[in-house]
Each structure stands twice: as C-alpha cells, then as structure tokens.
Amino acid sequence: FVPSTISPYRRLRSRGCRAMESLRRATSPAPGGSASSGGYSRRCLNDPARAERRQLLTDRNAYIAFLEAQVERNNEAAREVEAVGSGLRQISVRVEDLEERTRGAEQQVELVQEEQARMREQGRSALDL
Length: 129
What we know:
- By secondary structure, the chain is mostly helical.
- It is 78% helix and 0% strand.
- It is rod-shaped, with a radius of gyration of 40 Å.
C-alpha cells in the first residue's frame, strides 16, 4: 500500500466549504481561541458558487439580460409548440376527410356487390325456366 501524496484538505476541496472547514478545524490548532470563530459566511468567502451568486445579484444588468434570454427561449419554445399543434390539426382534418372518402368508397363497393349478387340470381332463375 502506497500512501497518497494528496493532502486530505485537497481531497475534500470538491465536497464543499463545510467539509473543508471541518477538516481545517480538526487539523489546525486554534491559537488564542476556537477554530470555529466567525460564521459560516465568513469562513466561505472564497466559495466560487457564492461569488457567482453575489455577482448576479449585484450586477443588475447581467441578471436582467439573463432573465430576458430565458424569456426569449421560452417564447421560442411556445411558438414551436403552436406550430406543431397547427400542423397536427391540419393532419387531423386531412385524416378525417380521407376516412369519410373511404367510407363512401366502401358503401359503393357494397352496393356494387349487392347488385352483382341480385343480377346473378336473376340470371340463374332465367336459366331454370
């Protein structure tokens, strides 16, 4: 077994600020006081996610631009849905029209078959006489 050369602090870096802070408290002595002096927000001032949130909140123009982009994407998606819905309605109308034509053709075929059967019967009865 070869011991890892990466410090436990670096291994926990990706787990979040709380895990790193608890490791720091456990591994470093606290001269003149407790290792947990200061609040969580002070301990995690360098947290990249927090910095990004702060920048979005303080940079009002960037936040408004972000929201406008979200609205534009949603509007575009809504337009696409409406277009697809319109296309589906047209297809539905066309299918109904074709079904109606098919029913009409089916009725015509049935009438022709009935007429053929009646004429066959008339031909047989004429031959029997």
